[in-house]
Amino acid sequence: MALRNIRTVEDEVLRKKCRPVEEVNDKIRDLLKDMADTMYDTGNGAGLAAPQVGILKRAIVIDMGDGLINLVNPEIIEQKGSQEVIEGCLSIPGKWGKVIRPYEVRVKALNEKGEEVVIKGKKEMAKCLCHEIDHLDGILFTDKVTEYIKE
């Protein structure tokens, strides 16, 4: 287990667009494992994107309680509806806000074996997928907040 430092909002790496992963190899699998270990170690994260640990590669990990999902080069290929959700972020501790997200999304990506997968997510899963994919494009949830929530 290798825990990585989670970059916070002051770090310019969070505002950069990530490069696609050329090949899903052992180095990428190690990154995904480190990201998952780091996410679980926080005790309150549902997802983590590579730039949050300082790596400008298109890779995310998500666990909404049904097991770990590793996605490399994820791309939203379909979205339906909309929902107002409350979001926070491991890179922006202590801030929460209302954001409009799709109600449902379909995401095409590669898994940790390099196989193409399509993930369908609704409600909370759709929110998490969109939030993490935004990180890959240098977008933070605070860019989309309609109203901040007071703690």
TrEMBL record:
Q: Which Pfam families match?
A: Pep_deformylase
The record's active-site residues are: 132
According to the UniProt record, what class of enzyme is this?
hydrolase
What GO terms are given for molecular function? metal ion binding; peptide deformylase activity
User: Needs which cofactor?
Assistant: Fe(2+)
The family this protein is said to belong to: Belongs to the polypeptide deformylase family.
**Function text:** Removes the formyl group from the N-terminal Met of newly synthesized proteins. Requires at least a dipeptide for an efficient rate of reaction. N-terminal L-methionine is a prerequisite for activity but the enzyme has broad specificity at other positions.
What is the recorded name of this protein?
Peptide deformylase
Q: Which species?
A: Ruminiclostridium papyrosolvens DSM 2782
**What gene makes this protein?**
def
